[in-house]
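Quick start: read one record
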Amino acid sequence: MGHIGPWPARRHFPPDSGRLFLRVWKYRAVSEGEAISPKASVYCLILAHMLTLMALLLSNQIFSPQYLLWISPTIAVLSPIRREMQTIGWLFLLIALFTQLVFPFLYDFLIELHPVPVVFLFLRNLLLASILVYTILRLPSLLYVKPLSLQ
């Protein structure tokens, strides 16, 4: 069976980017003389995993509703740790609601291009993109300020 995709067959994009993210974070923390706990490293790796999956979903040509299941475990793990992540968790539930309304219930209207399901999908994609941008912009405070449960 041949390999299909933009990356070489022996390397996989999300785990490698997570490890790179963790190495850069550890290098920066050690260079500033900060101690790194194993729990903080796990938190950083989970956050990198979430960002990588969201970027992959938003840049992909096809967005299947089941792809939201890829992100949901990371959101569920990160939500109890920080207040910002709780807000992201609630927004993700809204994203899931929009998706659930469109695909089992309003799919026939979507095929006919009625505006309501199109607006729901637009709002879903806008929320996903805004979560990704918000998390990237807040990344320094999310990484370098210890989470509540890790102190």
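Residues 13-148 form one domain.
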